[in-house]
Fold these 2 entries.
Entry 1:
Amino acid sequence: MIKKTILNYLRKLDDVVHSFGSPRVLFVIRNGLGMSCMLPIIEGMESKREFKIGITLEIPNCYLASGSALETFKKYFIPTEKATNKKWHVVLTTDWTDLWFTRNTTIVYTQHGNGYGNLDKKPLTSSNLGYIENLVLNGVHDIYLANAEGEANEMKKWIKQLPEPSAKQCIVTGMPKIDRLLNSTKEQGLDFLTSLALNPKSKTIVVSSHWTEKSLFRTLGVSFVGQICALYPEFNILVMGHGNLWRNHKGKLFCEMKKIEQEYDKCRFLPNLESTVGLLRAGDLFVGDNSTFLIEYCMMDKQILFFDNPELTFDDMYVWQLYKSASLPFSTEDELVQVIQTALELPDNLNKNRSALVGHFQENLGHAVEAVIDTVEQLALKHR
């Protein structure tokens, strides 16, 4: 008891000592997706405000920086043990964190996905909580940043179920990663195709999948990609997916996809794509599943083919309806071939439905980076 009292006193004294100067902000990275979400915030802080920035890893060696993120990562990286012992006013994560910080700080969760309600519905029990429910009820975060009001209301519902009055809050900021996409140009898509040694004048089909059990690739496999390549040899076919799909480079999906890429000269397998902006801007037709990546597809306002797995029940049935109404659904390989032909031949009349889907999941479009930075600055001021 005495030790705890002394420790609390030292922490409060530490707060006073560090109440002057620039806000100290630490970014905790778990994977490449997390880094892609954090990078726009870091760059915004660099260009607009005075912040003391640090980057650390949730687990040593859990992320290997590359591409445009490499320079930023090297500039601010601090080993995990050292980072958790330094003073930070705010710590930002995009996932669950098990890190314990020696000094007082505010731990903030910012989204790594664009939506909610898209995962397979399961009976909620204390041992079988959904991701967000578990994050709120059992996680260490003090603040949750939401992409839109609907998502914030879901989080607030779980905050109210905490066993005792909680200081946890949910704030709507929007999704910072989306700002970069909305501010991009068609030329970036053309440049992306050129960088892959593909003809930028050819039509391009983008195929992606979630990593969960009932996702596109884990249900139908990847052989249909070869079928598309064979049916449309003049098209560019770009294939990516959630990073968890490709962790095992000796796994069946990874090896089959590499084989298809080698067989068809206009197919590109992109398992480690650091930024998806060029990919999205390059696409003329998109194939996806219940992943929230479909929301970014909608922002491109092009035809979308949605894998509507009859074995998967969306956690939020309204979200399922939004996905279906914004796309051409299919459930089998044969149906996919048919809807591709439909998308290529018939007029696209789903523009309003795609816009409605985006509006449901995203607020502060084009201004989310600024909203997050303002929020972080205000949180940091509470320590000063």
Note: The chain has two domains: 2-179+366-381, 184-361.
Entry 2:
Amino acid sequence: MKERMRKFFKTVKRIRYFLIFAILLLSVNAYAWFVFVTRVDSSITAKVRSWNVMFQVHDNDIANDVVFSVGEIYPGMPDYNDHASIINNGETSGEVFFTIKSIQIFNDTYTDADYSQGELIDILTADYPFSIDISLTNNVVAPGHTEYFNIDYVWPY
């Protein structure tokens, strides 16, 4: 009889542990379910700064490429200077750089497909008896400021 009672109490203990474990597991799962189902609302308000940069040559707005053309160049010609204005009407600074796509001097054409930017600049400054200098007054255009893209042709006599 004692043996039977011991087995009975042992079985009751196992059932008790199983029920405690089942209740604990059920409560954790219920909590996780309600946490998952609960909808959380949040809102973020941000101000996006505008970036409004205009390009102008001789007070005309430019939408695409800038083209500078000099009709005649000859030894002893007066120095030719021209510029494009870069006007920042936005609220944040902007970085500015230029890329030379093609150069046509006399009947020679040089493109960025065949030459690097450094080689194209070297062609303009060193390969001919005249010099063409391209520069920016500043690589960063601050809000409310104007910077200039300058081009100078010089052919001394």
Note: The chain is about 30% helix and 25% strand.
